[in-house]
Design brief:
- This protein has four helices and two strands; from the N terminus they run H-H-E-H-H-E.
- It is mostly helical.
- It has one domain.
- A two-stranded antiparallel ribbon has the order 1-2.
- Helix 1 runs antiparallel to helix 2.
- The longest helix has 29 residues.
- The relative contact order is 0.19.
């Protein structure tokens, strides 16, 4: 079932969100000082490409550095990516079939805003 949901997700919004994350990652890699945010954007972009069967959890070792990094991320790219998730979620919720995918988009907004200090793990 997860594979079927992931394939439908990929066609409806997953690839577009993945491209957005990869553009943000490329910009972060070019700016050298923001390379850690580039890795975070790439990691979450891969999660946005194939999200069903995975979940986001807090890293127990995340501290003040992750908080400060998340504030910088929100300013640089987080707001725009979160807006992309919200707009995609609203568009998907227009149809009955798209509602679960819209809800999945809304669940990704917090990690889009604050990716540092988070870890993506497989569900059992």
């Amino acid at each position: 079932m997860r594979t079927l949901l992931n394939i439908i997700w990929l066609l409806l919004s997953g690839f577009a969100l993945f491209v957005g994350y990869m553009v943000a990652a490329a910009i972060m890699f070019v700016l050298i000082i923001t390379i850690p945010w580039g890795f975070a954007a790439a990691r979450i972009g891969i999660y946005a490409l194939w999200p069903f069967g995975k979940t986001v959890v807090d890293k127990p070792t995340a501290g003040t550095g992750a908080l400060i990094g998340n504030v910088i991320w929100v300013i640089l790219a987080g707001v725009w990516i979160a807006i992309g998730h919200i707009l995609s979620g609203i568009a998907l919720c227009v149809t009955i079939i798209g509602i679960p995918f819209g809800i999945a988009n809304f669940k990704m907004v917090p990690v889009a805003l604050m990716p540092l200090g988070k870890e993506i793990v497989d569900l059992p």
